[in-house]
Write a structure and sequence with these properties.
two-stranded antiparallel ribbon, Chemotaxis protein chec, alpha+beta
């Protein structure tokens, strides 16, 4: 559903316009209802069509909350989840708590990752691209050829 990256603006009220290439699709697939939440791994936001979010939510709720890391993930992701609906101009009003979490200001990057999109501050996105990664390659990627 989502792919590619696009520079977008977030206005002073916290509104962002969904790119036109996604608007009709999102209107058809989820009637413009989306869920935005904190990404538990990086300081950006995850944006899900409502039906995809329901699947993810069920997976997160099913995790054993006797584990401290699971509780942290549940609090961060479920506790910050906001159900939003595109307005008539294809915009979303992002809650200030989520804008603060991701350090979003006027310039942002919307990055499509298939069934979800990530929303990054432009500066954080550029910093992430410049990072060196010393983490070992996951075994699942050994046979991936691009």
């Amino acid at each position: 559903m989502f792919q590619g990256s696009q520079s977008i603006n977030v206005d002073a009220k916290g509104r962002m316009a969904i790119p036109s290439r996604y608007r009709d699709l999102l209107s058809a697939v989820c009637e413009g209802r989306l869920v935005v939440t904190a990404n538990p791994y990086e300081r950006c936001l995850n944006i899900y069509p409502e039906h995809i979010w329901q699947e993810k939510k069920a997976q997160i709720e099913a995790l054993p909350n006797s584990n401290k890391k699971v509780r942290r993930l549940q609090r961060l992701v479920l506790g910050n989840a906001s159900e939003l609906e595109m307005d008539g101009n294809g915009r979303l009003l992002l809650p200030s708590t989520l804008r603060d979490f991701a350090s979003l200001d006027k310039k942002a990057m919307l990055v499509g990752l298939g069934e979800k999109a990530e929303l990054w501050s432009e500066q954080s996105w550029n910093d992430m691209l410049d990072e060196t990664d010393d983490e070992p390659m996951p075994e699942e990627m050994n046979n991936l050829s691009l």
